[in-house]
Specification:
homodimer; alpha+beta; four-stranded antiparallel beta sheet; 37% helix; globular; DNA-binding
Chain lengths: 244, 244
Amino acid sequence: MSITVNELKTACSQCNLIELCLPFGMSECQLRQLDALIGTRRKVKRQHSLYRNGDPFEAIFAIRTGSFKTDVLLEDGREQVTGFQMTGEILGLDGISSEKHSCNAIALEDSEVCVIPYARLEQLAREIDGLQHQFHKVMSREIVRDHGVMMLLGSMRAEERLAAFLLNMSHRFTARGFSSAEFHLRMTREEIGSYLGLKLETVSRAFSRFQEEGLITVQQKHIRLLDSAGLRKLVHHHGVAEPH
Amino acid sequence: MSITVNELKTACSQCNLIELCLPFGMSECQLRQLDALIGTRRKVKRQHSLYRNGDPFEAIFAIRTGSFKTDVLLEDGREQVTGFQMTGEILGLDGISSEKHSCNAIALEDSEVCVIPYARLEQLAREIDGLQHQFHKVMSREIVRDHGVMMLLGSMRAEERLAAFLLNMSHRFTARGFSSAEFHLRMTREEIGSYLGLKLETVSRAFSRFQEEGLITVQQKHIRLLDSAGLRKLVHHHGVAEPH
DNA sequence: GGGATTGGTTGACGTGGGTCAACGCCGAAC
DNA sequence: GTTCGGCGTTGACCCACGTCAACCAATCCC
């Protein structure tokens, strides 16, 4: 079996990811109440899935270590990566609407998640003031994020998309205490391409071009941002000419 | 001022949109409790906005009559339409995450919405069993919908996108008791294009081509689907060749 | 009612990124 | 250490869609 169920009981109040995760902004006292929330932890090996499209929905998941991608598949086999998730981020919200998961969540590296049984979450959300609101915020943030991706896919050119992607990764690494200028991508060029609506060759060429222009250095999956202001400019200025 | 505030008190229990809207699936008794939920109604004239990016978030909105588009703007003026909303659908969920709205909601025709003060919703969600769950479903559905749009934008070609769009509209009109084969689009070619990540000329050409091929008839905004099976095939078969 | 404005269609042409193919690098297996 | 398979890079070519422009239809508004 691809998944190891680990019966270790865990507690939000002891976790060092609270400021990134569902319990963000809750009081000491509320946090202790929250410890009833987490069921178990679960380990997921690289390339294995946490859940698949069609699986019955029972819980959402908070990433403790590692990272994931989510994707949807078209009947003819085309894949669309809908997101990359890092520690503290929540997976599985798509399943609430139909009581079945509607995408696949696949580990990009050996990872571990906290299993949050959804029925228990609803229960506690009614009791603990602030949890409900926090959960709504998490869902809302997901919606806002998705709108940003639509903007990427619908209105930006290849290099703008990749620049926006790199800045977003940098931002999220920073929030986790890692370097904002230097990081290791866990996903392949093809997965980046799928996420950005591009082919892997286009992604690869854009990386090379950014390197030629002195914006970044690339060595396989290891990225160093040399000029993030330059990248930011690339995203917003529609490529070339200044108006007036 | 672009908006008329109408102090008519309204009640979910009297509304004929319940099976499409937030109260879906709730019991008679719960429905009566729900009547405390709606604040006022508000009329929004065609082309006017219900809320704009940056506005403080206070309420979500259920569409009673009319329709809307939501969009996000890039600093250089590029617009991305993130969705079209019809009666019974909920607007404003994006605002919960940051306590400010993060997109613009603009009426496509003279419309009316129910104002649902968010604080009151959170309150009632704690009291009325089922409302919380229903609200979560609405948010989750929005996330799933967004993933579908990403699939469109990231992995489909122009005609596939338009075919998927037409089928989606047909589906939603049907759910509202209108003809599934004949309907009136409230948005312009440019808005459709923005939503689908295409230019208006490409949208126009794809409409013409569908007409030539006998899939639909087009007269301005009036669409008749002649062969929705053909459209469906178009979406899933990657355009041309059959495998094997 | 007529002129202006907005939205839609169509054609000719250009180009960003897709496609196809060759090749190189690196880590895993043994 | 050698082999192998997956991943990444690069080049040559092509095509789907964007761009630009002309024109028409519908609607708005004095």
